[in-house]
Amino acid sequence: xxxxxxxxxxxxxxxxxxxxxxxxxxxxxxxxxxxxxxxxxxxxxxxxxxxxxxxxxxxxxxxxxxxxxxxxxxxxxxxxxxxxxxxxxxxxxxxxxxxxxxxxxxxxxxxxxxxxxxxxxxxxxxxxxxxxxxxxxxxxxxxxxxxxxxxxxxxxxxxxxxxxxxxxxxxxxxxxxxxxxxxxxxxxxxxxxxxxxxxxxxxxxxxxxxxxxxxxxxxxxx
Length: 222
Prior knowledge:
Shape: globular
CATH class: Alpha Beta
Number of domains: 1
Largest sheet: 6 strands, mixed
CATH topology: Rossmann fold
Distance between the termini: 34 Å
Structural class: alpha/beta
CATH superfamily: Phosphoglycerate mutase-like
Order of helices and strands: EHHEHEHHEHHEE
Oligomer: single chain
Number of helices: 7
Strand content: 5-15%
């Protein structure tokens, strides 16, 4: 292994949209709640070492979370294009069971290889991966291809993170679709010598990722 530094995908802190289970995906989106601020501060304070690099999506909740991590660690936060949440089109702003059921049906299909499905006016799974994976590849090339200089933290969003974790490290459904990420939980990816990634952590779980769980009633994204 050429490096022990990791790519750490961090879900942002809690928002009112998460509490109300609103499909809130458009940028800039809702801000952090007081609890979300506390979560972000606690995450930053709990890091054993400052990250080498700290970036976030341009959504307000992600920028605010990264800002609190910056304050705790001293690592300057930067915004990168392309890291925002899955865009759900006409489902944006809805919290009704029908909207959730439609999104979950499409989203689970992506994890099964049906990447061209999309909500009306929204993105396909292929669209999501096409904008996020090149950003992460660039971060790997610039910061994770040499000596162990520290982790790369990317503050982003739950649904996008789980799809990316599945695509990069081969973590398989139904684990990826049933085990949602709580606010400020992480997916930790270690670069491998063959150009791939090994998933070291998915929220509170470590390999092997075989936990059997029913689909969660928690907010599905954000």
